[in-house]
Amino acid sequence: MMSRKINTLGHAAARLMALAVCMVLLTGCAGNAQPKAEPVVGDRTYRQLRDSARSSLSEQGDASLALALYTQALQRAQTILNEFAMAEASFGRAASLARLRRYTEALDALETRGFVPTPVQKRSKLLLMARIYLEQEQAEEATAKLDEAVAITATPTPPATATLIRLTRGQLAAMAGDLDTAKPALVGGASGLPAALRAQHYRLAGMIDRLENNAAEASESYLAQADAARAHANWPAAAEATARAAEALATSGDFARAAGLYFQAGRSATLQKHAKLPAKQWLNAAIQLGQQSNNQSLIRAAQQLLESQRVTE
Q: Using one digit for the tens of pLDDT, what is the confidence trace for 261-272?
């Protein structure tokens, strides 16, 4: 009986790792990234809640609904006393909170829940924490969690996870202005990578382009990141990448294109009703740059969105 339980946890942990790269990158999983193995948790109610949560995050990009469903799944896992299900649902909750940019709550969930029965699940948790710290530009904390994740050698590191670690280190190096360390992280290119990793590749490329004062190239890299984010229904990340592209163009004096991209980012954030995205800031930037390029139709459209009172602060 005990041997069966250990084996079950091992197979389940492997499936969690299949989801981990996508969820660590705050994107969810879609298409071929979704694990195909049979579920290891026997409880039907739990499985239905978990699968609905995954679909909400990966296919619909609805992190609020995913959070609610993962919370119910966690409660069910606690009721049936299934340790792996607790870890799985807790991790899903944290990933959903991170997608909503509720980073403090996500870190609290990862710190306090503590349902980590296997090395694979522990590594997933640490990688998600590293990514959250990176998003908050807390490089020291991100590096510490990344080092802890890399130090886990009890189980092999899948290629996708290794790529995630390499790109994360590259982004941290770029944040510090260390081009010599950042550039090699782009080895192999973006071709063939899953959309979640492709987005991070292009994000790093954009960061390097900015450091090298290549505004046009940076804009193209960030727009490629936005495309990859949309491929995984990660609407917040797509909006943020679009705004980065706009910022790069604005610094180079291409006010017309920058205005259009800021408007696109602001409109996306407005329609999402995402509380943590600076939609108002982006739309105001679109108006200011639209004035520079005398784009009256864009100015009016941005003003209408601002006046609609659907723009989140």
A: 999 999 999 888
